[in-house]
UniProtKB/TrEMBL annotation:
<comment type="similarity">
    <text>Belongs to the small heat shock protein (HSP20) family.</text>
</comment>
<dbReference type="InterPro" id="IPR008978">
    <property type="entry name" value="HSP20-like_chaperone"/>
</dbReference>
<feature type="domain" description="SHSP">
    <location>
        <begin position="59"/>
        <end position="173"/>
    </location>
</feature>
<dbReference type="InterPro" id="IPR002068">
    <property type="entry name" value="A-crystallin/Hsp20_dom"/>
</dbReference>
<protein>
    <submittedName>
        <fullName>Molecular chaperone Hsp20</fullName>
    </submittedName>
</protein>
<dbReference type="InterPro" id="IPR031107">
    <property type="entry name" value="Small_HSP"/>
</dbReference>
<dbReference type="Pfam" id="PF00011">
    <property type="entry name" value="HSP20"/>
</dbReference>
Length: 173
């Protein structure tokens, strides 16, 4: 027992198991407002001022730029955007002035009525992404498809752009 190490024991108080957050909805809001005022002016405040408000988080994810992949093949460029929760009627793809714009908007409303309570939630969010069209894209043949929350925009190359590069031999001078 000569090598025995004694560590201090601290007891952490916890909320009672019978009082979940759902029973006290204003407590979470009060704590969030208190934290907001405590953090005001700090670097953390300006990064994420409402980090635990679920509705704001949901809207924030949608308003943020969606994940996009741009790939190139011999015949076309392809832009793939992940847009979960959107329908094709809420997505707009436009080509103008040498650029491609993808816009989307989500409006979600939830209403629940039962004996003793009524809940109404609304969340809205939108995004817009702009891409300059590369040289050699046939703007008249651009196509877009939407399936399972993924938008694919195909930008076919012109016949001239599909030609392989011409190799030029270098001669000694």
């Amino acid at each position: 027992m000569a090598n025995e190490t004694k560590l201090p024991v601290t007891k952490k108080t916890t909320e009672p198991a019978f009082a979940p957050e759902a029973w006290r909805p204003f407590e979470a809001l009060r704590r969030e407002v208190d934290r907001l005022f405590e953090d005001f002016g700090t670097e953390d405040f300006w990064r994420r001022p409402f980090r635990s408000l679920a509705a704001f988080e949901k809207a924030q994810k949608l308003v943020a730029r969606p994940a996009v992949d741009v790939t190139e093949s011999d015949k076309a460029f392809e832009i793939t955007a992940e847009l979960p929760g959107l329908d094709e009627k809420n997505i707009e793809v436009n080509v103008a002035n040498g650029g491609l714009t993808i816009k989307g908007e989500k409006k979600e409303e939830k209403e629940e009525k039962q004996k003793g309570y009524y809940v109404s939630e609304r969340s809205y969010g939108s995004f817009e992404r702009y891409f300059s069209l590369p040289d050699g894209v046939d703007a008249d043949k651009i196509e877009a498809s939407f399936k399972n929350g993924v938008l694919k925009v195909t930008l076919p190359k012109t016949a001239e752009a599909q030609k392989p590069a011409k190799k030029i031999d270098v001669k000694a001078a």
